[in-house]
Amino acid sequence: MTARTRLIVFLASAAVIAAFFTTACTGLPRFGSDLHPYGDRAVAAALAHRTANVVSSVNFDIRAFDTLGEESILFTTVLGATLLLRLARDERQHRPTAERVLPTTGLFGVVLMPVTLAVGVYIIAHGQLSPGGGFQGGVVLATALHLAYVAADYRILKKVRPLTVLDVADSLAAASFTIIGLAALITGGAFLKNVLPLGTFNTITSGGTVPVLNAAVGIEVASALIVLLAHFLDQAVEITDPDEQETT
Predict the structure, then answer these.
(1) What is the pTM of this model?
(2) Which of 15, 19, 128, 213 could be bridged to 207 by S-S, CB 3.0 to 4.6 A?
(3) Residue-range definition of the domain harbouring residue 149
(4) What is the sign of the dihedral through the CA atoms of 172, 138, 118 and 96?
(5) Cα separation of 208 and 194, whole Å?
(6) Domain total for the chain?
(7) Other residues' Cβ atoms within 10 Å of the Cβ of residue 198
């Protein structure tokens, strides 16, 4: 495909998208209006399904299919990074050297790491009750693990970061989201419909499938970010070009 053909295809696609976008915007309520049909329905649905956090109800119940797409984007990103950043034929991997860390920095990382892990687990487990959830908690868990890099060095991080286990956890967590949706179909509901017992409002067991999907997303996000950062850190710390190494 030539550059001229790509430009024509782009302009045609952009014109179609612009037309649909403009049509959609003309149907929006006026700015400052007190008409909020989506918000009113989302709050009502969250209360009906015993989910105190309306945002989690929207993400993992009302529009759970869209959340599946967002999760798949992250999974695909990690897969692409794994393929692109794998060890090339002209690259070599060497053992990272020990680094000296200030005692205050090491103490900071050692003290903060378990606290951050606990906060990440709490955010995931209580995502259906309070602000937070799988995406936010997964990022916190991934950040907590990398405090080992701050408190010690890259060798310690590699010891507490089993990439093989995390790769499997990432794949299983991503697949479990779809499996939960298929389970709803088997029970006679719609794909990703909330079919589990709703429980008592404002308790950790409430929300039906919302806390289950929250947990799956939390594991997937944490595992994916750790694996993704591992590939970039390997490129920066361990992988070298033999020709460049000889010239230096």
Answers:
(1) 0.80
(2) 128
(3) 3-247
(4) positive
(5) 6
(6) 1
(7) 17
